[in-house]
Specification:
8 strands, alpha+beta, Beta-clip-like, single chain
């Protein structure tokens, strides 16, 4: 068996979630099996850095693409955004996590990895507090979610 297939099969053994419609907002990430405390739910997802696009560069893109970047990626106080190496077509599931003030996931490395904060049941939506890795998100979030 080739190395790529071996890696893919290993990653599939550690697949815990899927994307589906969310009552919180649009789509979200949901447990497709029980997840124990401390499990890294996106183990195997690419964490390679992309390129930072300046706000001026983003303004040259179609309006819909600009909105997508600001909806799904973290921006700094100047409106610059780090975009994954393949643009937005290769976003992993972590980009579809919805915000909660009482999340069941946490991150200790600014959104590179997300770990179960408590036991999560099959079918439960996975959530994270955006302000733990994107301090500028607070001004856009509804209170009490």
């Amino acid at each position: 068996m080739n190395k790529n297939k071996e890696r893919m099969l290993r990653n599939l053994q550690h697949t815990y979630c899927r994307i589906q419609p969310s009552a919180i907002h649009g789509v979200g990430v949901f447990a497709m099996r029980d997840i124990a405390v401390g499990i890294s739910v996106f183990d195997g997802a690419s964490t390679s850095s992309g390129e930072t696009l300046a706000r001026e560069e983003i303004k040259t893109l179609p309006r819909e693409v600009q909105q997508f970047l600001y909806d799904f990626l973290v921006s700094d106080e100047d409106g610059n955004v780090e975009v994954p190496p393949n643009g937005v077509v290769g976003l992993d599931m972590s980009f579809y996590l919805n915000h909660s003030d009482t999340p069941n996931l946490e991150t200790h490395d600014h959104g590179e990895t997300f770990v179960a904060k408590r036991a999560i049941k099959n079918g439960e939506e996975l959530t994270v507090d955006y302000t733990t890795f994107d301090p500028h998100s607070a001004k856009f979030l509804p209170k009490g979610q």
